[in-house]
Design goal:
single chain, alpha/beta, 44% helix
Length: 262
């Protein structure tokens, strides 16, 4: 008898509940409480388990506490409008459903669900366990590797599977290990991360394709003006003047993979 290969599904709980809520336009009530976020979340979770030969599941949530990113940059995610109070009520309902299914929930003050997802996937990979990450957050594409893929949920029932090649297609040839640096340079409006002022999508990706990761890029600032990029001299000056800005933004975009959890 062959043993079924272990495959771990790691779920970004907050992201999935929020996207489920907005993807179902009509109220779904139970005891006069709108439950569409929890309902959509648990349906997508069960569907993902069934369709991907999953043997193990973990779900990660944010907490209400400030994270280390808020301390680095107080305006982090500050642009987001207050959520509907009924939307916040979906989280405890979703957790009750997970408890009834025997699925463990992970959360830790000071860190986001992203960091717990990154930590659990890293631990699993070290134990030679394949992972799927179910999320609606493109930040987690940086966690893709030969043993981990991402199931990206659009919020309207569409799920795209990202492996390393699909990540490269999305980011103009740059793989998962560049995702945090891409967002640090060009910014990420969804998290209110400003990026380096004056560096847009084309410039950010061209620089990383030409020079590699930040350490190499910053060592080659004098060579930027010689590459085939419009306004290369201006871009060289911008990078030269904003090295610390780029490094600080990278602290915000980089997912932690060594949170102390059991």
């Amino acid at each position: 008898m062959t043993t079924k290969k272990e495959k771990l599904l790691i779920v970004d709980g907050h992201a999935m509940v929020f996207r489920a809520w907005f993807s179902i336009p009509e109220r779904l009530t139970a005891n006069k409480i709108d439950t569409r976020g929890a309902y959509g979340f648990i349906n997508t979770l069960i569907k993902s388990i069934r369709e991907n030969n999953i043997t193990h599941v973990a779900v990660c949530f944010d907490t209400k506490a400030d994270t280390f990113r808020d301390k680095i940059f107080p305006a982090y995610k500050a642009q987001r409008p207050p959520a509907d109070p009924d939307l916040h009520k979906q989280i405890p309902i979703a957790k009750d459903l997970l408890s009834s299914l025997g699925i463990p929930v992970f959360e830790k003050d000071g860190f986001e669900a992203d960091d717990l997802v990154g930590t659990i996937s890293s631990k699993a990979n070290a134990d030679e366990i394949d992972c799927l990450i179910l999320t609606g957050d493109a930040d987690q594409l940086q966690l893709v590797n030969e043993k981990t893929n991402v199931l990206m949920y659009s919020g309207f029932g569409e799920i795209r599977i990202y492996n390393s090649e699909k990540v490269k297609e999305r980011y103009d040839g740059l793989g998962p290990d560049f995702v945090a640096e891409i967002k640090a340079l060009e910014g990420d409006p969804s998290d209110n991360i400003p990026g380096v002022p004056g560096i847009g999508k084309k410039a950010a990706r061209s620089l990383l394709l030409e020079f590699g990761h930040f350490e190499s890029l910053f060592k080659n600032i004098d060579n930027i003006e010689h590459i085939n990029l419009r306004g290369s001299k201006r871009i060289q000056n911008i990078i030269s003047e904003n090295i610390e800005v780029a490094k600080r933004c990278l602290e915000l975009t980089n997912i932690v993979r060594n949170v102390e959890i059991n």
